Amino acid sequence: MKETMKLAVPTLGSGGFASKRSDHFRRCDCFTVVDIVDNCIVDVSELKNPSDESGVRLVQTNFGWHAFNVRNDSEHEEVDCLRVAELLSRAGANAIVAADMSSRAVAVFGNAGIEVLTEHRASSVGDAVEAVTKACALP
After folding, report:
1. Which domain holds residue 59?
2. How far apart, in whole angstroms, are the C-alpha atoms of residue 48 and residue 125?
3. Residue 24 confidence (pLDDT)
4. CATH code for the domain of 31
5. pLDDT of residue 3
6. Ranges of residues in the chain whose predicted pLDDT is under 50
7. Across the beta sheet with 30-37, what order do the strands follow?
8. Cα(50)–Cα(87) distance, rounded to whole angstroms?
9. pLDDT score, position 63
10. Phi then psi for 114, rounded to 5 degrees?
11. For 18-32, b where at least 16 C-beta lie within 10 A, e where not — what string?
12. What is the pLDDT of residue 138?
């Protein structure tokens, strides 16, 4: 049976192995998505991050529509987390590599069927993918 992983790497700028890895999945420009089969890379693609950086959300109340600045609001962070987890799940990702992630975000990704892998040292996407493939290598 083949071991497969579709790994999402938060990326600054455009996707690819030479790109700088982002420390924040909610604030990255895109995800470099890497298909790995039996520890061999078989495909690389880019997925735009839909996370709303404006920090403004329209909310309908009994009095009509209102704009709220929620950039630092924990509810907004949770909505962004759900949006990213849903996007990656629909793209078939089953793992994400992150420098750090809150326990709430780990739970959201877990509920979407996405394993959170932690890696602190890699600054490029390629280095992060290499670290993950080495850590997940079968003996």
Report:
1. 4-135
2. 15
3. 84
4. 3.30.420.130
5. 85
6. 52, 54, 56-58, 66-70, 73, 75-76, 138-139
7. 40-48, 30-37, 4-11, 95-98, 115-118
8. 8
9. 58
10. -115, 120
11. ebebbeebbebbbbb
12. 46
